[in-house]
Structure formats: C-alpha cells, structure tokens
Amino acid sequence: MPIKIPDQLPASDVLRQENIFVMSESRASTQEIRPLKVLILNLMPKKIETETQFLRLLSNSPLQVDVELLRIDNRPSKNTPTEHLDTFYRQFEMVKDRNFDGLIITGAPLGLVQFEDVLYWDHLQVIMNWAKDHVTSTMFVCWAAQAGLKLLYNLPKRTRKEKLSGVYVHSIHEQYNALLRGFDDTFLAPHSRYADFSPEYLSEHTDLDILATSDVAGVYLAATKDKRNVFVTGHPEYDSHTLHNEYVRDLGEGMDPAIPVNYYPNDNPDNAPTASWRSHGHLLFANWLNYCVYQRTPYDLEHFSEENFTKDD
C-alpha cells in the first residue's frame, strides 16, 4: 500500500526515484475506496484445487477483493463435479457486458497441443480481446502466458524438447519496478511446462519489461509498460505437493518423467517436499493487486479511460 506524506516533504523525491509509491496528501484526500472486482478464468482440470490456490494468494492483502469464477465453456468436467461448476462458475455471456478491475487466466495442461488444435482457442481469443476494453490488468499464468503472447504479439508457439519441472532460482531485473516491490535479489519459484520463454526471444520480439529470469527456466515475470498485461510463466500458486502429484500422475501414465529439480530433499521422491516459494508468491500477487489494479483502476468501473493506465507508480 502507498504511504501518505506531505506534498513537499524532501523524502518524497528520493522515494519516487526508487519507484516507491508515495501518495500526496492532496491525492489522498480525494481517493475513494471500494472492493476490487477480480475475475478468474480457470482452465485447469482440477478446478477446486486451482481456485483454492489462487484465492489463497489473493487473500493476502488489506484490499477487499470480490472474486468471480469463470469457465471457458459448458463441457462436462472429468475432475470437477457438475454441481460445483453450475453453482460457483459463470459463463462468459453472463459477464461480457461488465467491467472488472483484474482478470487472472490460469494455466492449462496443453503444452504439447498447437493453439489451433485447442478446442476452446477461438473462445479464449474472444475473452482476451474483450479484456482489452473491460479489464484494468490481466495476469496470464503459465500456458495462458504463452497464449497471451500469441494474441498480443503474434509470437509462435515455442516448445522445449523436455518438460521443465521443478523449483528454480530466479534473479530480478529493474529493482524498483512496482511488481518487484519487496522481492529479494534472487528467489525461488516452481515451473511445470513445455513452453519456452527465452529472455532473448521476448526482448527481440516484444516491448515487454523483463522483470525476473532464471538461467535454466528463462523468463519468469514480464509485463507491458502500462502494467495492463502481466505474464507469469511459472506457478507461484502451487501447493507444496502439486509438483509431486504431477510427477506421480506422469509416472502412472508411463511417461518416464524426470524428477522435479530442486524439489525433493536429497532429490529423493520418497521424501516429502516442502514449499520454498510461498513468500514471493504472496508478494507478487499483493503487488499486482496494489500497483497494477488498485492504483490504476477507475473508481467507477463504467468509466474506463487511458488516463487510468498511464499514471506513475
């Protein structure tokens, strides 16, 4: 959250140079507060597990957040009860005439599927295009990040020869970028994907700010300069056993998966894994809610304006 100090206090210039959000008394006196409206498009098969993971991250903020869950279509789910979907999830047609402060599009187990072969690809493009005029900031997670780069920058699908699975060390760039507020210089985050996000490739073909990278996993965090689109290529929402469950699943399907990197104690799958990424996962979502959504979204969601997306941090 911002700090409020007198307009002319000398410290304000120093803090702003460090890109720390300082709210002047004059601005604070006119600020209005309301709950944030955040929509989660859940593309994962185990929707109850995934929604719980994301809600946990969104809850670690002093901001009040009203969350609505969105499904991509009305096909029956093998992993989620129909009653749950009918009770708690909305179809796009039910929300398309409304505006939202934030949108999160989750990952999906489609790493080896070409975009044009994804059953709901056309519908997903409709939702992503809709977000340009109806959402203040959209976060694309894992596979959705690859899909978002295709839509916004027409980047072709790039696939690794082997699945990236494990917990990797990342380094931050642009220390004073708002999304990295409070981050350590290096941090851990889990990945589980075939998608390739090379820093060189993204730097050459997009105007994104590359904010965090790994020597092994590539780009972890990137954003458009107006912060209306944020790309997270890993899974900060994962529970401590999620990678383990995926590993066991792949073993059961005869896929001969590699043991997730830097995950099990002594690299032994018989040892219970422990989460080493929770603090930065919570911090990333708190920063996104505050600096990309709350500080930029209009008080009246019916009045979108480009001015809301060009404010200084």
UniProtKB/TrEMBL annotation:
**SUPFAM superfamilies from the entry?**
Class I glutamine amidotransferase-like
Substrates-to-products reaction catalysed? L-homoserine + succinyl-CoA = O-succinyl-L-homoserine + CoA
Q: Does the keyword Acyltransferase apply?
A: yes
First-tier enzyme category under EC: transferase
Give me the Gene Ontology terms describing cellular component.
cytoplasm
- Annotated site (Important for substrate specificity), which positions? 192
Highest taxon listed in the record's lineage: Bacteria
Q: Which GO terms describe its biological process?
A: L-methionine biosynthetic process from homoserine via O-succinyl-L-homoserine and cystathionine
- Predominant place of localization: cytoplasm
Say which family it is in: Belongs to the MetA family.
Stated name of the protein: Homoserine O-succinyltransferase
What organism does this protein naturally occur in?
Answer: Vibrio albus
